[in-house]
């Protein structure tokens, strides 16, 4: 077959050839080099069918449909992801591109690949564990975020035990992987508002005990990012129930007050936006009120000197003034 | 229907104020150059030594006086029959506001002008809303609404909601500059440019989904927009929809148990029955659902579900909640419209339900009618950077002006015949210069739009004249 010529292979043949190549790559026998080459070559062929090349249009819908069907039947998507670390650099990128394209495919109101993955959730779990392998973490990340766009897939991921691994992934020492994991994590927790709110409500204790660890992380970036995301989650109207629950727990208030005193000004500032919710709450539970009362003077004093150089930020100053007034006017509940 | 019905009620009184204000504006700036060859439309600033100079308005007159003695008298009294005088085109003068370079007018809202701008530090294209206090005061709640909008926009960050980047004040001129995301037009201007006043379904689908995304974000930030309509939905150059004008938006309290609202503001034709019937309170988020429903109805059919000769009739009709959907609208869109325009706000679709609706999840086929484009701005369908000519003028002014002397344009006035000659010459040059300037085609037909095409090369412009020698800014 000519190296750069037009392929005459149909989808079924390409998928078959690719599957064989991946299988022999997996076995790691002495023909590995040849297998590697075959994998790359066939991946390019599939990619070109979907995306076209500089001088060829993408294949007609019917061919793409055949291709997708072959991919489902052969279980090749899972196989590719499982062996992603064995595929060469360009090949890894091609896998991600092929995967994302097939995922986006729609027939009328149906997304066949989404339906397929729902029946094969291993694909999602394998992708999530991808964050543990440095060489494939970012490729898996792009595929995961594409999956997270679909509510059905996001739901599987959120409600799986593997989701809690994200609390570990976002803290890994490799910065680019940690950031990538965090953006996937954030996407899962914010993209589908109603789904996320339900998830946070039903799994409140588990999620927030894990979340607490992020807020106490040794890693500055983790601490700052997770605090910012916490603020966004609590202030989102969809998460109203979660917010009321969060701000009734005195432990959370203590944590925020400590973060207000952190060395980093950015963390102080993010903490302020969570702290204000505790104070603004018109129905403060007694333990919360007690803490605030005990620190009444200190808090007023502290807030008076808090980020005074943000003179141009009107909103911040309004909010600060409001908090100071609120705290000054705090009174113990009658009868105590 | 009365066009006022589609206006936000807040701007009812602004119409007249606007008219005379902009008239004054004309007088201030657009002076024909017959009397004095060098009155300039824009503030003449030589910003090289001192870019902030533009604030002092009177500098040009001072310069004029100073230079009078240097004027070449014979040139000054050059005799031309009055009917042969062609007015000089706008002189492009670089104007800076803060770090932003001013471009051309994009449009006019009820609060003031909107112009294009370029951030000179990031080179990002921006739009600036210029608000004049004088104008604002004449609009009921004008200043309040603007302050509220600024406060809201500052904390918002979503791809389908217009972004506010910066806020500048000029207390001397009592002007406020709001630096916003650059947009090419609103859905309304696009609709107006079509005969049927509607989009092909696939295009409407695209915009509607983006509207829903943006709306979901606003609602998650506890904001009720209250004035969703095609006129407030802008498009970026990348065809991304941006919800704009949060002037009457309301934020519900962080601890409010529900989204109950008491005040209905916004454009009458897009108001829900609960407001038309004057209910004391109503669920706020459902107001936006209704007006999005009217918007969807409007952009897919070219009509409004409820009409009336005056606001009372209109509200009467909305209050009854009875409307018909043209037969050409088929399922599932019919069902979606019925669900969004449900009279009972509690039974009306939620955003979640809309997002899951078959019409939204199904990818529409891009067949059928061709895409409705954003109408061109002053003949430029590509909406090219209007700041560029000012920069070119500013930095390459001198050498080009010298070159134009060969053009025979050393006269400050020019006759029809000379114009034609130059036009001819320009066409010839156009053939030799292959410049990817898209508005060239229509520019050749009329002299008024030729300034658009000539922006790249000053020398070929038929409207570029040498000003009176000696009157040039040094």
UniProtKB/TrEMBL annotation, chain A:
Q: Which residues form a coiled coil?
A: none
> What Gene Ontology biological process does one annotation of this record name?
intracellular signal transduction
Q: Name the domain of life this protein comes from.
A: Eukaryota
Q: Which InterPro entries match?
A: ARM-like, ARM-type_fold, Mo25
Q: Which residues cross the membrane?
A: none
GO MF, one example: protein serine/threonine kinase activator activity
Q: Which family does it belong to?
A: Belongs to the Mo25 family.
Q: What is this protein called?
A: Protein Mo25
Q: Which organism is it from?
A: Acanthoscelides obtectus (Bean weevil)
UniProtKB/TrEMBL annotation, chain B:
Q: Which SUPFAM superfamilies match?
A: Protein kinase-like (PK-like)
Task: Report residues binding ATP.
Answer: 129
Q: Which UniProt keywords apply?
A: ATP-binding, Cytoplasm, Kinase, Magnesium, Manganese, Metal-binding, Nucleotide-binding, Serine/threonine-protein kinase, Transferase
Q: Which processes are annotated in GO (biological process)?
A: establishment of cell polarity; glucose homeostasis; intracellular signal transduction; regulation of cell growth
Q: Where is the composition biased (Basic and acidic residues)?
A: 416-432
Record field: compositional bias (Acidic residues): 15-28
Gene3D superfamilies noted in UniProt: Phosphorylase Kinase, domain 1, Transferase(Phosphotransferase) domain 1
Query: What Gene Ontology molecular function terms does this protein carry?
Result: ATP binding; metal ion binding; protein kinase activator activity; protein serine/threonine kinase activity
Q: What is the required cofactor set for this protein?
A: Mg(2+); Mn(2+)
Chief subcellular site?
cytoplasm
Q: Report the locations given in the UniProt record.
A: Cytoplasm
Q: Where is this region: Disordered?
A: 1-51, 416-457
Family statement drawn from the similarity comment of this UniProt entry? Belongs to the protein kinase superfamily. CAMK Ser/Thr protein kinase family. LKB1 subfamily.
Name by which UniProt lists this protein: non-specific serine/threonine protein kinase
Native organism is Acanthoscelides obtectus
């Amino acid at each position: 077959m000519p190296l750069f010529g037009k392929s005459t292979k149909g989808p079924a043949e390409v998928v078959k050839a690719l599957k064989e190549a991946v299988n022999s790559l997996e076995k790691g026998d002495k023909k590995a080099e040849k297998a590697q080459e075959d994998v790359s070559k066939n991946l390019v062929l599939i990619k070109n069918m979907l995306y076209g090349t500089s001088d060829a249009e993408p294949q007609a819908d019917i061919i793409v449909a055949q291709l997708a069907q072959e991919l489902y039947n052969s279980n090749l998507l899972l196989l590719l992801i499982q062996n992603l670390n064995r595929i060469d650099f360009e090949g890894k990128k091609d896998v991600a591109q092929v995967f994302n394209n097939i995922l986006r495919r729609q027939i009328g109101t149906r997304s066949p690949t989404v339906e397929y993955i729902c029946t094969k959730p291993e694909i999602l779990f394998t992708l999530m564990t991808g964050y543990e392998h440095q060489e494939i973490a970012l490729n898996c990340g792009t595929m995961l975020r594409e999956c997270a766009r679909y509510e059905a897939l996001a739901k599987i991921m959120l409600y799986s035990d593997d989701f809690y691994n994200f609390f570990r992934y976002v803290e890994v020492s490799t910065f680019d992987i940690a950031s990538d994991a965090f953006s996937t994590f954030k996407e899962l927790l914010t993209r589908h508002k109603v789904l996320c709110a339900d998830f946070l409500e039903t799994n409140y204790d588990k999620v927030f005990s894990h979340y607490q660890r992020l807020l106490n992380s040794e890693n500055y970036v983790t601490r700052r990012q997770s605090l910012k995301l916490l603020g966004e989650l609590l202030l989102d109207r969809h998460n109203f129930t979660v917010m009321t629950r969060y701000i009734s727990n005195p432990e959370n208030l203590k944590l925020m007050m400590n973060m207000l005193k952190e060395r980093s000004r950015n963390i102080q500032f993010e903490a302020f936006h969570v702290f204000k919710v505790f104070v603004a709450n018109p129905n403060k539970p007694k333990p919360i009120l007690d803490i605030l009362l005990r620190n009444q003077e200190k808090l007023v004093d502290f807030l008076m000197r808090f980020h005074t150089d943000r003179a141009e930020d009107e909103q911040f100053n309004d909010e600060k003034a409001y908090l100071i007034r609120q705290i000054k006017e705090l009174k113990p509940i009658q009868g105590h | 229907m009365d066009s006022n019905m589609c206006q936000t009620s807040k701007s009812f009184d602004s119409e007249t104020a606007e008219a005379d204000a902009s008239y004054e504006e004309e007088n201030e700036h657009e002076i024909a150059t017959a009397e004095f060859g060098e009155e300039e439309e824009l503030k003449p600033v030589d910003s090289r030594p001192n870019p902030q100079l533009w604030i002092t308005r009177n500098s040009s007159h001072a310069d004029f006086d100073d230079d009078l003695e240097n004027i070449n008298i014979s040139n000054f009294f050059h005799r031309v029959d009055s009917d042969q005088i062609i007015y000089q085109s706008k002189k492009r003068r670089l104007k800076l506001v803060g770090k932003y370079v001013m471009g051309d007018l994009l449009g006019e809202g009820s609060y003031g002008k909107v112009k294009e701008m370029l951030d000179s530090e990031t080179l990002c294209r921006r739009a600036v809303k210029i608000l004049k206090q004088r104008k604002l005061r004449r609009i009921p709640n004008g200043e309040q609404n603007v302050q509220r909008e600024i406060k809201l926009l500052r904390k918002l960050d979503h791809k389908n909601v217009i972004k506010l980047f910066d806020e500048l004040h000029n207390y001397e001129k009592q002007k406020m500059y709001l630096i916003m995301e650059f947009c090419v037009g609103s859905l309304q201007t696009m609709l107006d440019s079509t005969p049927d006043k509607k989009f092909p379904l696939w295009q409407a689908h695209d915009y509607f989904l983006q509207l829903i995304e943006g709306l979901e974000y606003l609602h998650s930030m506890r904001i009720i927009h209250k004035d969703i309509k095609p006129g407030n939905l802008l498009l970026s150059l990348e065809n991304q929809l941006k919800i704009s004008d949060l002037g009457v938006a309301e934020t519900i309290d962080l601890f409010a148990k529900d989204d109950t609202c008491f005040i209905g503001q916004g454009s009458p034709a897009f108001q829900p029955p609960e407001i038309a019937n004057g209910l004391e309170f109503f669920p706020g988020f459902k107001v936006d659902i209704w007006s999005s429903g009217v918007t969807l109805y409007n952009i897919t059919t070219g009509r409004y579900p409820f009409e009336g000769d005056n606001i009372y009739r209109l509200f009467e009709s909305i209050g009854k909640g009875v409307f018909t959907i043209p037969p050409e609208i088929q399922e599932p869109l019919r069902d979606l419209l019925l669900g969004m325009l449900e009279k009972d706000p509690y039974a009306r679709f939620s955003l979640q339900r809309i997002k899951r609706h078959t019409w939204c999840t199904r990818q529409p086929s891009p067949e059928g009618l061709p895409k409705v484009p954003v109408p061109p701005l002053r003949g430029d369908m590509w909406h090219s950077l209007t700041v560029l000519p000012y920069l070119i003028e500013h930095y390459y002014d001198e050498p080009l002006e010298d070159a134009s002397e060969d053009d025979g344009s050393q006269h400050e006035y020019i006759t029809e015949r000379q114009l034609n000659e130059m036009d001819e010459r320009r066409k010839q040059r156009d053939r030799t210069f292959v410049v990817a300037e898209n508005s060239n085609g229509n520019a050749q037909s009329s002299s008024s739009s030729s300034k658009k095409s000539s922006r790249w090369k000053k020398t070929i412009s038929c409207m570029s004249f040498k000003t009176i020698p000696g009157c040039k800014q040094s």
